[in-house]
Amino acid sequence: MTGTGLGMGATGSGVDWSGLIRRVRLATGLVLFAYVATHLLNHAVGLISLEALEAVRRVFVWVWRLPPLTLALYGALWIHVGLAFVALYRRRSLRMPPWEAAQLLLGLSIPPLLFIHVLGTRVAYAFYGLEDLYTYVLLVQWVFSPAYALQQVAVLLIAWLHACIGLHFWLRLRPWYPRTLPYLYGAALLVPVLALVGFGVAGRTVLIMSSDPAWMRRVAQAIRFPPASAAEQIERIDTALKVVFFGLLGGTLAARVVRDWLGRGKGATLTYPDGRTVSLQPGMTALEASRSAGIPHASVCGGRGRCSTCRVRLGRGAEALAPPTEEEQKVLDRVGAPPKVRLACQIRPIKDLEVAPLLPPSASPKEALRRPNYVAGAEKEIAIMFADLRGFTQLSEHKLPFDVVFLLNRYFAEMGRAIEEAGGRVDKFIGDGIMALFGIDSSPEAGARTALAAAKRMGESLAALNRALSADLGEPLRIGLGIHLGPAIVGEMGYAKAVTVTAIGDAVNTASRLETLTKEFQAELVVSEAVERAAGVDLTRFVRHEIEVRGRTGTLPVRIVPRLAELP
Prior knowledge:
The protein is an alpha+beta fold. The protein has helices at residues 17-44, 50-64, 67-90, 98-128, 134-144, 146-171, 177-209, 213-223, 228-262, 286-292, 326-334, 392-396, 401-422, 444-468, 506-521, 529-535, and strands at 269-271, 277-279, 311-314, 341-343, 353-357, 378-390, 425-430, 433-438, 478-495, 498-504, 525-528, 543-548, 555-561.
């Protein structure tokens, strides 16, 4: 059973309690998952025979009743439950994503359903000398008290689903996880299905055999049923444990109410870019403040400080925050976060603070992976290409919409493939135009070379496309390209789902201007000498011009390339 993961932060002793609690909760959860998984697989052996079920049970019991594993199992159970109560109390808001609410409710339902099973097997074995064979469990649940069968099935499925949700939201941040997800999803479905079928087959076998008095005498002798007084005592202990559990749960919720009432009006104020303000209770994180006020805020990991998608840019009041813990700093370093960027789930403002969420509420797990530093915004010297189809507007006037879309998609596919194979990045498609960037992940020299290589590939691809579509085109498609190299501001820009890495600045405007000049010079490419020099390519055989670019002082030397096929 996992809690919320909203941490406790660091103390003056330098201990990162938030990170420590997350690691302990994860470790205990993995121990419990291992037990549930092997238990379900043991159930599945019932598909073979009752004898096979008992043989595998002997191995299962021998392993988990080794003193170190017994200590690890029951220690993990109580620590996991205890941390869930701690996390529930420390939550400042019970608003949470549906998956997180489901995991919390499923986890809290496990202990009261599980008590009687543990008491009737492990405790009865240890204190009353009962031999808790699988046959004993099946007799109890299929013959003596069928209601327990439904309860046992429910608790196993709830525990499995609770664990799978937790594992999914832990592993989804790993780069390899999307590739293996179909297989893991199949296993997550197959294991409980096989366990239920095996449990049903074995239970039906016991139900039939229980009608044989001789078989029942042999089984009773092997099981060594405790006296009726022991069964009554176990039921009393089960009731007492449930009273304690629900008492602790009710006490935790009551303590939350008292704490919130005492802290009312004593917290700081959080201000968002649109002017909205939220009053914080003492100890509340910025993410909890967003949730409590119903303000959408990205958080792929549910506020556990692992994904970085809740990160915010800090404004006025940032100086009053405690510095990042070691765990938070690792996450910020992983995504290349610049100064004044923090995780909203880890900061607990004590004075008024301005914050600006950096990712849309719909952010996906890929936003949590290691990312280049320039994604947050950087100035880089890159090569920029603009490409445009010549005369396509007139061509499309005489075609059906379906044909226009078909032609453009074929064109975009060929040009995009040529750009990416050369090492460039397609920035965007603008009508029938294309903007591409080169050298973002490398050097200006490499960017210039890959831009010229892409231009040549695009010319070859366009020629092949014209041959393939000759029957559909009245005249061949023609293209005009402009390429320039210069400093540009590169970063992830946009809104909601329309967010992409792009570039802005004078170099971008200049490249666009060079593309329009291809019409004036009746050429397929106009490329600045800055690209020629950086690429180390000899273009002196092409005509050189000094052009004026609006917004720039002085002139810009360029080369005019009539046909892309003539590029070296």
